[in-house]
Amino acid sequence: MTRLTSLTRVKWIATLMVTSVSIWTMAGIVSFGVILGHGGAAAFAATVTRPIPDTGQNIPYTEAFGEDSDYTINPPSYTKLDDKGKELDDSATSWSMVRDNATGLIWEVKTDDNSIHDKDITYKWHDAIGKFITSLNAEKFGGFSDWRLPFVKELSMLVDRGTCNPAINRKYFPNTMSSAYWSSTAGAYDTNSAWCVNFSSGGVGYGSRSGSGYVRAVRSGQD
Q1: Which of 64, 103, 144, 172 is least enclosed by beta carbons within 10 angstroms?
Q2: Which has more confidence, 66 or 162?
Q3: Each residue of 42-76: b (16+ CB within 10 Å) or e?
Q4: Torsion angle in degrees (nearest 10) through CA of 169, 186, 135, 86
């Protein structure tokens, strides 16, 4: 199957192409959803105003031209930031945030230190917003109080389809769990569900808000 190019993905619509519908178990969330993994497309809308980073797919699967591996449009580019939001050299061994230079979004970096940023902490969907995000903004993490849970299309842009387990650039996003991370995007047909991105393979699906999932905060930067 020909992969979607970065340019094509700007025009995603909800009826695009369903490549797999399955029971998805994600960090305690069992849900009936549409999955976007390394091998296919998902049926969810993506109205995009920011540039879309290339997917990272680098292996061609057909001889036909048009797969993501044939294009370089917005190559992924990241900058490490300290706990004040200041730029660090790429060789820095300690950093608190990462700026996606393609989208301008600034992402929280997970830790392994038992702090609020610890990689092992999971939340129910309402607590991810009501407790985790509220706490980050109350303490002005990095000097900012506009942290939020990402939209599903934003979260899915972190997926690196050239790798898996976790399907993310580990140089900039260490301590990422190969599991489901909550987005703020609610399920359209079930008010008790919300969309998630599973960073084991980059799958996108939805799960019960009463289930537990991992979280990564984001802010919109200076645009």
Answers
A1: 64
A2: 162
A3: bbbebeeebbbbbbbbeeeeeeeeebbbebeebeb
A4: 40
Interval 76-107: pLDDT, tens? 899 999 999 999 999 999 999 999 999 999 99
DSSP-assigned beta bridge partners for residue 79: 99
Tell me phi and psi for residue 14, to 5 degrees: -65, -20
Please state, as a whole number, how many other Cβ atoms lie within 10 Å of the Cβ of residue 84. 10
3-state helix, strand, coil in the chain (%, to 5): 15, 25, 65
The Cα–Cα gap between 88 and 58 comes to 28
* Residue 20 confidence class, pLDDT cut points 50, 70, 90: very low
Q: Which residue has the tokens 């976007």?
A: 36
pLDDT tens digits, 178-191: 999 999 999 998 98
Supply the pTM of this predicted model. 0.74
Secondary structure element (H or E) that encloses residue 80, with its range:
strand 78-81
